[in-house]
Amino acid sequence: MMRGVAQSTAGTRWTNGIVPYVMSTAFTAQQQTLITGAMRNIERLTVISGRKCVQFRPKIATDRYSILIKTGSGCSSHVGQNTGWTGQLQLTLQVSTTPQSSHCMYERTIMHELLHTLGFNHEHQRSDRDSFLTINYANIQNSYVFAFDKLTSANSDNQGTPYDYNSIMHYGRKAFSSNGQPTMVPKNPTATIGVKTTLSPIDIQEIQKFYQCK
Question: What are phi and psi of 150, to 5 degrees?
């Protein structure tokens, strides 16, 4: 069951909003600072009534679940705590090997992946997305069509929040394009998607709702 762009099953919500993590030593000190800086920004932006709504901290011995933040191919994360998962939860961030190579070491990208870790899926997968977007399947790379799957009202709950073109969880117009043409087009002609560098007000509201912060 999805909640807005978030999972709604109890096991997906991190206990007390605390996400223990293990940081791979393959990251440079500068890269580790960038990653922890993205964590601090999410914590700061979601504070409510002077208290942290969510918190990322290094794993300690008593933590049952944690996320391993590692280098690898592409940018990806498990979605939520997933208590039914028997393996190590992972967040993967590709680092640049040459000045021209693609990588994930941007604060926006790291925050996006950390929201996956918190239990959130992509905004453009909402059950009501067809009222706000046109998906051009003919332009999507075959191996990434799954990333445009739409949730249904049977397995999703939009939390009463409006569709958010400004969400940090929204793909851009040409995401995973096979031919340089748009893979999705907003039905609002003035909307921009996939360009925001921080959490939107609705992103913040959804995190606070999902983690029942007051």
Answer: -95, 135
pTM of the model: 0.92
Cβ neighbours, 10 Å, residue 102: 9
- The CATH label, of 3.90.190.10, 2.130.10.10, 3.40.390.10, 2.60.40.3880, for the domain at 2-210 is 3.40.390.10
Q: How crowded is the C-beta side of 66, counted as CA atoms within 13 Å?
A: 16
H helices present in the chain, as ranges: 29-45, 107-118, 201-210
Residues 6+ apart with CB under 8 A from 70: 24, 26, 90, 91, 92, 93
Q: How far apart are CA 205 and CA 162, in angstroms?
A: 11
Pair of tokens at residue 16: 């007390």
Distance of CA 163 to the CA centre of its chain: 16
155: exposed, middle or buried (C-beta count within 10 Å: 0-12, 13-18, 19+)?
exposed
| Residue 154 pLDDT exceeds 80 | no
pLDDT digits (tens, 9 = 90+) for 100-110: 567 899 999 99
Amino acid, single-letter form, for residue 197:
T
The answer to whether 142 touches 173, Cβ cutoff 8 Å, is no
113, 104 Cβ separation under 8 angstroms? yes
Q: Which residues are annotated as a binding site?
A: 112, 116, 122
Look at residue 6 in the predicted model and tell me its pLDDT. Answer: 53
Residues annotated within a binding site for Zn(2+): 112, 116, 122
Q: Which residues are catalytic?
A: 113
